[in-house]
Amino acid sequence: MKEYIPKPIDVSDVEIPTELEPLREAIAENIHEVWSAGRMKEGWTYGPVRDDKLKKHPDLVPYSELPEGEKEYDRATAMNTIKLVLKLGFELHKK
């Protein structure tokens, strides 16, 4: 099997306008919601400590209750998504 080497598009040169910050936060929250729904569909439930055998996870809580570090992970994903959209030449406008 050939070695897989990820090659994400470089978006380091893209600046996100401040008016898109609410979009970043909405996408970050939705990322968490999608992840949570997927885990729950697989039988996972909340537990104060992650336990793969019992399918318990401490992050199965509303986004607003996540530790800031976990929110930052989702925000980074959202930020890179928005930057990619802009880099590819699309425009984002709120109606």
Topology readout:
Blueprint: H1 21-41, E1 45-46, E2 56-57, H2 68-87
Parallel strand pairs: 1-2
Number of helices: 2
Q: How many DSSP-defined strands? A: 2
- The assigned structural class equals mainly alpha
Can you tell me the residue ranges where pLDDT is under 50 for at least 5 consecutive residues?
A: none
User: Biggest β-sheet, characterized?
Assistant: 2 strands, parallel
Instruction: Give the CA-CA distance, first to last residue.
Output: 48 Å
Shape field: globular
Query: What is the helix content?
Result: 40-55%
Strand content: under 5%
Lateral strand order in the biggest sheet: 1-2
- The average pLDDT is 96
- Evaluate the radius of gyration: 16 Å
Secondary-structure element pattern, one letter each: HEEH
Describe what you observe in this structure.
The protein is mainly alpha-helical. The radius of gyration is 16 Å and the shape is globular. The longest helix is centred in the N-terminal third of the chain and has 21 residues, at 21-41. It has helices spanning 21-41, 68-87, and strands at residues 45-46, 56-57. The model has no long low-confidence stretch (mean pLDDT 96).
